[in-house]
Amino acid sequence: MLLSSYRLGNLTLPNRLVMAPMTRARAVDGKPIATTATYYAQRATAGLIVTEGVHPNEPGQAGPFMPGIHNAEQVAAWRVVTDAVHANGGRIFAQLMHGGRIGHVEVAGHHPVAPSAIASTSEVFTPTGIKPAPVPVALTASGVRDQVRAFGDAARLAVEAGFDGVELHGANGYLIQQFLSSNANQRDDEYGGSVAGRIRFAVEAVEAAVDAIGADRVGIRLSPGGQVQDIVEDDVPALYSALLRALPDIAYIHVLATADDDVLMGLRKAWPTAFILNPGGQIGPHESTREQGERWLANGADLISYGRAYLGNPDLVERFRLGLPLVSTDRETWFQTEAGYVDHPSYQH
C-alpha cells in the first residue's frame, strides 16, 4: 500500500512516501545553494517532497544558514531547485516556518517576536554559537496580522518560484504552535486565552495562504502535545479538534506522532482531506521503518512522511520496494557541512 499512487489536491503522487521537512542549514544569504537543487532532485522519487523550513519574512528566521522566501533573489534561487525536482519527475512543497521566539537578533538582525514576552527555556543557534533563547517582543494585534500576511505573501512567492504548494509549520515549538500553546501564549485578546483564541492565528495564517494560492496547494504540519522547545498544550484533544474544525479544507494536515494513538486516530477521523502521518514523532534515535508506515496506512493515514530515513537514502522508495537495507547518517553531517549532503549514493546492486 505504501507504494500505491494517491491523488493529493491537483497532484497525482506515484507512491505514498513523503520526504519530511528537515533543517539542513546550508543556505547563503538566505538563498539555497547549487547543491540544494541536487539534494532535492536526488530524492524526487518520493511521492511528495516537503522542503526544510523556509522563513516567510526576516523576523521569522530561526537560525543561521536557513533559507527564506520573501524577496526576488530568494525566489530565483528556489526556482533552480524546483526546476531540478520537476525535471526528475518529482513534486515539491515549501515549508513556511516562522521561528517566533526561537531566534536571535544575531541571526536575523531583528529581535524575535512571539505571542507573549516569554522566553523558551531551550537554547538557540546563532552565528557565534549556541545561546539561551532571548525574551521575545510580544506582538501587538496589528503585529500579529502582519505575521499572518507574511504567510500569504510567502505562499504566493513560493508558487512563483515553482513550488507545487506550501506547508505551514505549525509544529515543534515555532510561531504557530506558540500561539496554540498554553505556556508561550499568555495573551488576553482575541489571539489568546480560550481555545478559540489560541487557534485563531493558525487558522488565519492558513487562510492567508489559501487566499494567495488556493486550498489544494496548502497543508499544515502539527505536533499535538509535542513539547519541543518548551511547549505546553492544555487539553490536546479539544485544542486540535477545534483547530481541525476551524481550518478550511486544505490539501492535507501533516501530523507527527507526538500524542497517543487514540488522539491521532481521533484527528484522522475528524479531518476530511489527506492525512499525512510521521511515525517518528519527535526526533528519535532511529529511522522510521516501512512497517511503521504500513501500520498507519492500515489505520487510516493516507500518506507517510519519513525524515531521517531520507538523509542517507535518496532512493528510499526503491529500497522499500526491494527490501534493501537503509543507511544511517552521522548527526555531525546534518547541518552546514559539505559532507553528508549530496554524497549518499543510491543502492549499488
Automatic annotation (TrEMBL):
GO molecular function: FMN binding; oxidoreductase activity
Signal peptide: none
Domain called NADH:flavin oxidoreductase/NADH oxidase N-terminal: residue spans: 7-325
Listed InterPro entries: Aldolase_TIM, OxRdtase_FMN_N, Oye-like
Xref: Pfam families: Oxidored_FMN
Top-rank lineage group of the source organism: Bacteria
Name by which UniProt lists this protein: Alkene reductase
Originating organism: Lentzea alba
Top-level taxonomy: Bacteria, Bacillati, Actinomycetota, Actinomycetes, Pseudonocardiales
